[in-house]
Design a protein that fits this description.
This protein is α/β, with parallel strands linked by helices. 63% of the residues lie in helices and 10% in strands. The protein has helices at 4-21, 25-36, 43-64, 70-92, 110-132, 136-143, 170-185, 207-216, 281-295, 299-308, 314-330, 334-347, 352-364, 368-381, 386-398, 402-415, 420-449, 454-466, 470-483, 488-500, 504-516, 521-527, 532-535, and strands at residues 153-157, 161-163, 189-193, 221-228, 235-242, 248-256, 262-272, 274-278. The longest helix is centred in the last third of the chain and has 30 residues, at 420-449. The model is unreliable at 102-112 and 129-134 (pLDDT under 50).
Length: 536
Amino acid sequence: MLNFNNLEITSLIQSVRQLAGAAETEKALEQLIAFLGRDNRYDALHRTAIQTLAQWQQTKQEETVGIISFDNARLSYNQVTHRLLLILDRLEAGKTTLTDEAPPRRKKWWMVAVPAAIILAITGWLVIRNLYHNDVGTQIAAACPDYSETSAFNILVFRFQRFGDRELSTHQALIRRLAQLSERYGIAAEVGIFNDGGDDKKLPVSLRQAERMAETCRAQLVITGTEEAGTGGNIITTQYRFLNLGEQFAFRQLRVNERTEIDTITSISSITTNGSITGNLEQSILLLFGVVAHETRNNKVATELLAAAEITDSATTLLRDMLLADSYLAMDDPEKAVAAYDRVLELHPNYAFALQNRAALYVQKGDYTGAIKDLSAKLELNPRDAATLQQRGTIFLEAEQLNRAKSDFERARSLKPADTSIFRRLNEVDIKIEEQRRINQEAERTLRFDPDNIKALTDRAAASRKLGDHATAVATAERVLQRDPKNIAAYGTLVESFIEQEQPEKAAEVLRRIKAANINRTELLRTSPRVKNLVD
């Protein structure tokens, strides 16, 4: 016959397995962690459960922002489920660790097990009820820090859950450093500790519980975590969540308008407001306070702190560099913003928000080739994105790649037939195409009677390129250069044709020929301004 303690474990195992079977993995782990945290005997299993929950949350975050493949996400979720079931199997077998080490000799404690278990169960039930049900506000509020009314940003720190015998007091170092940064940079942010009275049972067992408690404390950022002193170095995991920001951050999104100017709108990114950082505490502090600076519009401070944060995991580097880029945009520093997007896209090449903004910044500096490449990558992710098709068509039109512009506008119109702006753009490109066809026809008529006419050859080369006939454009431009070795327009047509055909090595060879011919750079850029980014 099972005693009460065994009944309690059996009930817990059944409940957790039901949650796991219903794909409620996070809830299953939270329930398991809460149970294991009530008894020091289960420290090893408790630690494994917390690490397993952190892996689940990290995978979920990376899947949300699209920085992990479907297969890798499924593998990670399967690992989490396997570890969860393994913990349950060990509990069911009466084990306190994941290994098969010989258990310590049993003491005769069974005579007090039943009343002790009853007291523990009642106490645990009362604590949970008191903390998280109807009277949660009063008890949690009493343990909240006393933030001043002048604080623009409240940070709540929980004592880090300790594993092992040695206390590292990570939370104290965290609070002290955050307060120093607040004072140093003049940011009206206040940092406070949740007064748990040294009772581990009052610590949140998950980030979700920490968030609910932080809301009662009027905090905008909650930080919790675990600490463990080891012979190979301390192991610190910092979990954070920004509150009252919804589920995601709001960033500046750049779009190319009909005049190839940059429109700035506020848009919600797919970066979630919570995460987990394992590693150097100082780097975690720099990152988190950098986010605080960004959210309080202290962009100069944000860039200084975020740039100094040496973060290695992919999800957190995405957060850091997107915040850096946004701060640089606010400071009107597009070059540094592009560099930040470069870092984002190096690790996350399919992150559409960064592709969009970098493309717009490329347009701003006249790099149409780079802009088209980024928007094309974005369209590979969503071929039915009419807005991006219209933007790329506008850039094609500005770069005088008329057939490509027409194709994009036609596709955009098929997706949004009621959009009059697309109709206007399509009409504009049709007029330009017809104009270039007339130029081409006139040039051909002239060349029938005067095959060496430089102007007619030059016009034909340029018109052919604009109409997408690159073979004719290149051949005709070379005929011009045979007769006029310093013809700047012909050189421009050659370079642009090779770039549009994605033949950079041939474009580079033309640039070497231009240099050898002592072509005046200023004159070249005046005649063909779109080669500026190649000759700079």
